[in-house]
Design a protein that fits this description.
Pfam families: S1 (PF00575)
Number of helices: 1
Helix content: 10-25%
Protein name: CvfD/Ygs/GSP13 family RNA-binding post-transcriptional regulator
InterPro entries: NA-bd_OB-fold, Ribos_protein_bS1-like, S1_domain
Distance between the termini: 89 Å
Oligomer: single chain
Structural class: alpha+beta
Amino acid sequence: MVYKIGQKVRGKVTGIQPYGVFVSIDEETQGLIHISELKHGYIKNITDVVNKGDEVEVVIMDIDEYSKKISLSLRSLQKPKYHPFANRRNISRYGKKTGVGFKSIDKKMPKWVDQALKEIEAMKHNNID
């Protein structure tokens, strides 16, 4: 069978290594799910996710045109538990916790301008003398 990138296929886990899982797609074709493509988040032990003999549905991520090696992903079929920016309101650098924002800059700007003008005047007087 001819496989294409992005295609969903079913396979059977035939082997587990520290770097990933081998999946038999058909009688003649085998692919690898890298450990980073097994699930979202940290994986301490691969057997917590899959075991040898399990039937899995995977997506074909890449097919090497020379060696015909197939890269698979189980993670791409799973919905992430959270979005990296979903909790923006609780992160202080976005200004929600600290209250720092454009309003505080608006208040401080006149003081900064006065200070800068005084420094410029002082430099002019020092250069004349």
